[in-house]
From TrEMBL:
Record Pfam families: Mur_ligase_M (PF08245), MurT_C (PF08353)
Organism listed in the record: Trichormus variabilis (strain ATCC 29413 / PCC 7937) (Anabaena variabilis)
Protein name as it appears in the record: Lipid II isoglutaminyl synthase (glutamine-hydrolyzing) subunit MurT
Subunit structure: Forms a heterodimer with GatD.
Gene symbol of the encoding locus: murT
Catalytic activity entry: beta-D-GlcNAc-(1->4)-Mur2Ac(oyl-L-Ala-gamma-D-O-P-Glu-L-Lys-D-Ala-D-Ala)-di-trans,octa-cis-undecaprenyl diphosphate + NH4(+) = beta-D-GlcNAc-(1->4)-Mur2Ac(oyl-L-Ala-D-isoglutaminyl-L-Lys-D-Ala-D-Ala)-di-trans,octa-cis-undecaprenyl diphosphate + phosphate + H(+); beta-D-GlcNAc-(1->4)-Mur2Ac(oyl-L-Ala-gamma-D-Glu-L-Lys-D-Ala-D-Ala)-di-trans,octa-cis-undecaprenyl diphosphate + L-glutamine + ATP + H2O = beta-D-GlcNAc-(1->4)-Mur2Ac(oyl-L-Ala-D-isoglutaminyl-L-Lys-D-Ala-D-Ala)-di-trans,octa-cis-undecaprenyl diphosphate + L-glutamate + ADP + phosphate + H(+); beta-D-GlcNAc-(1->4)-Mur2Ac(oyl-L-Ala-gamma-D-Glu-L-Lys-D-Ala-D-Ala)-di-trans,octa-cis-undecaprenyl diphosphate + ATP = beta-D-GlcNAc-(1->4)-Mur2Ac(oyl-L-Ala-gamma-D-O-P-Glu-L-Lys-D-Ala-D-Ala)-di-trans,octa-cis-undecaprenyl diphosphate + ADP
Length: 447
């Protein structure tokens, strides 16, 4: 008897009704152009069938793959999804980035038929780091990718060691055949992998030429997660990710499964090398051949808002999601390594962004200001960001042209006006701001 037939008749009836209601809601929301219906259908269906996540995920033929972490979830999930689809697999994926429980349910619901049968080979679900402990047991994942842990929305989540301890506690209770793939360069995740009883594969870099000149101000975890002593870093790649050892207890970086030099990347930014290695390690574990993986990487298109390139009024625009200190420092690194001189920063403080915007003072905006050019600032907290940039100026004789524009549409128009046809406008928005920017530029909503 197959998995679907094991579900009791009464469960099938309740599940079928929940699916019917969810699909009706999806149809209405999309027909009325109110958004992508990426959360509401799951929220309503869950009230009808509370075990929705479990009943749907257990129908996935080859298993569920969870991708968790602070930064890089959407890009990694999309790359792995594309690799598997290019190999001929049918994949369910929460592609809009709705990564809380209702969003996961909606993604699974979207791939079912009218009676609640889910006929896919894999489900790739990017999961918000704070809900990982709640969804692991109902999902029973085949693979868990642990990308990184940075400070992000401290008003909601707290410090990284707290999250790591919760992850370790729950993951260790999963079946031994579960495969866990942590980031070897992240001390907390490296230790997590070393403590688990399951099969563990690591990904990470071994390219000292990419070390930063110094440990950045926005560093989150330079102390040994095992004994608390300061770690000795041979070098850091970004934030606290790097090559490290503990001189006190001997804890050291885990050995990555793949040699990072042997794998190229097409997306900008060193952070995307991590995303590429994570997806590649998972794909190889699933039996995908290297030719398919490399061809996919070389032709990969960025997820919306993540190093996404658009052409607006004949000018190139690149959107670089910037939602926390580490991520923003990395997008600033991309901007400063280019020759482009116009940048738009959009800072919001809504629930998806985190209501505490004090993190902008941990961002190395000085590097952006030093190069001069035009910086346009907008968003709900436009004046906070403008003040941060003014404090970044080292002299009154700065070459910076700072433009403060609270109206987002006007800010985008102004930034485009200051962008020469031969250059790229870089836009660095927080999450909700990124959705607004894309709606202004493309004329349609994502969520």
């Amino acid at each position: 008897m197959d998995v679907a037939n094991k579900i009791k008749v009464i469960d099938r009836l309740r599940l079928g009704f929940a699916v019917l209601v969810a699909k009706s809601v999806t149809f209405l929301v999309r027909s009325l152009r109110l958004g992508a219906a990426s959360v509401l259908p799951g929220s309503i269906a869950r009230r009808i069938e509370p075990r929705l996540l479990q009943l749907l995920s257990q129908q996935v033929q080859n298993g569920v793959i969870i991708i968790a972490g602070t930064n890089g979830k959407t890009t990694t999930a999309l790359l792995l999804c594309t690799i598997l689809e290019n190999k001929g697999y049918r994949v369910c994926h929460n592609s809009t980035g709705a990564n809380l429980e209702n969003g996961l349910m909606t993604a699974l619901l979207d791939s079912t038929n009218l009676v609640g049968t889910l006929d896919v080979d894999y489900a790739i679900l990017e999961v918000d780091e704070n809900i990982v402990p709640r969804v692991l047991k109902p999902l029973q994942p085949r693979i868990i990718l642990c990308l990184n842990l940075f400070r992000d929305q401290l008003d909601r989540y707290g410090e990284v060691d707290t999250i790591s301890k919760r992850w370790t506690k729950v993951i260790s209770t999963l079946p031994r055949e579960t495969v866990v793939i942590p980031n070897a360069d992240d001390p907390t995740l490296s230790l997590l992998g070393q403590q688990l009883p399951q099969k563990v594969l690591f990904f990470g870099l071994n390219e000292p030429e990419h070390y930063l000149e110094a440990i950045p101000h926005a560093v989150d975890s330079i102390y040994c997660p095992q004994c608390g002593h300061s770690l000795d870093y041979q070098g850091v790649y970004l934030s606290h990710l790097g090559d490290f050892t503990c001189p006190s207890c001997g804890f050291t970086k885990s050995q990555p499964t793949l040699a990072s030099r042997e794998w190229s990347q097409i997306l900008v930014g060193l952070y995307n090398k991590y995303n590429t290695l994570a997806a590649t390690t998972a794909a190889i574990e699933l039996g995908v051949d290297e030719t398919t993986i490399r061809d996919t990487i070389n032709n990969f298109q960025a997820a919306f808002g993540r190093a996404e390139d658009l052409v607006i009024d004949g000018k190139r625009v690149r959107i670089l999601l910037s939602k926390n200190p580490v991520g923003t420092n990395e997008t600033i690194r991309v901007v400063t390594q280019s020759t482009d001189k116009t940048t738009l920063l959009v800072l919001n403080d809504r629930t998806p962004d985190g209501t505490d915007v004090s993190w902008i003072w941990d961002v190395d905006t000085e590097k952006l200001v030093e190069r001069g050019g035009t910086l346009v600032v907008s968003g709900d907290r436009v004046y906070d960001m403008a003040l941060r940039l003014r404090y970044s100026e080292k002299s009154a004789q700065s070459n910076l042209n700072l433009i403060v524009e609270a109206d987002l549409r006007q800010a985008i128009a102004t930034a485009l006006e200051h962008t020469p046809a031969t250059e790229t406008l870089h836009i660095l928005p927080t999450y909700s701001a990124m959705l607004e920017v894309r709606e202004v530029l493309t004329g349609r909503k994502i969520l």
